[in-house]
């Protein structure tokens, strides 16, 4: 009977060791999983920052190009107005002066 009790005790002790070993392995796997998740998150963060930088650069370049075109168009329009004023300014002033005199 003592041998049976001893054997049961040994079985219980081994079962306890198996449970402890399993828990230890489970904790190690969870730790590894957490580390991998953190690594993936960092990689994704870096990739997103890289993509955002590229997009920002593209948007800045497009905005710069649009500003340049608008500036050029404004400059051309101003030159056209100045040229028209130089060519027809005296006529316009004369017409205004004649209307003032008629009144």
Structure description:
The chain has 103 residues and is mainly α. It is 98% helix and 0% strand. The longest helix is centred in the middle third of the chain and has 101 residues, at 2-102. It is rod-shaped, with a radius of gyration of 43 Å. The N and C termini lie far apart (138 Å).
**Largest sheet report:** none
Structural class: mainly alpha
Give the fraction of residues assigned to helices: over 70%
Parts with pLDDT < 50 across at least 5 consecutive residues: none
Shape: rod-shaped
Key phrases:
1 helix, 98% helix, mainly alpha, 103 residues, single chain
Topology overview:
Elements: H1 2-102
Could you provide a short overview of the structure?
With 103 residues, the chain is an all-alpha fold.
